[in-house]
Amino acid sequence: xxxxxxxxxxxxxxxxxxxxxxxxxxxxxxxxxxxxxxxxxxxxxxxxxxxxxxxxxxxxxxxxxxxxxxxxxxxxxxxxxxxxxxxxxxxxxxxxxxxxxxxxxxxxxxxxxxxxxxxxxxxxxxxxxxxxxxxxxxxxxxxxxxxxxxxxxxxxxxxxxxxxxxxxxxxxxxxxxxxx
Length: 180
Known about the structure:
Elements lengths: L1 H25 L5 H31 L4 H28 L8 H27 L6 H22 L9 H9 L5
Helix pairs in contact: 2-3, 2-6, 3-4, 4-5
């Protein structure tokens, strides 16, 4: 009986080791072109949504609305930007790790940048949501401060694509139609 168990366990170990080696040999990641196309496909609707939300935020800052209306609209807008950033981050994560030199580092950079942007929008939303609307001047001063902080955090979170350490990925981003 022990021999059967040992033999079965040994066969299972060999099968698992073979599967690990086969998976490692195949790489498992998308080509640089496929990865770049997936990333750009994730970022295109995100950029459009952020642009739309930014425009709406600018309109809210100049609109003749009550502080309560402005607060509700801005909280909704920044929540939308937070969600759009998380959706893009998740899609970049789902794109996997490209089979390229420094592919894991580049992929992590994209995800981290989107995560920081998501968090910046979330903090702006929370800050505005916490503002009192009883004093309009104080409310709008608080909104301006929240937007200034958001802009600084947003700028600081931007991915410096000039620092991509993979020539393959740089070429792929230049070549695939999804990134044009």
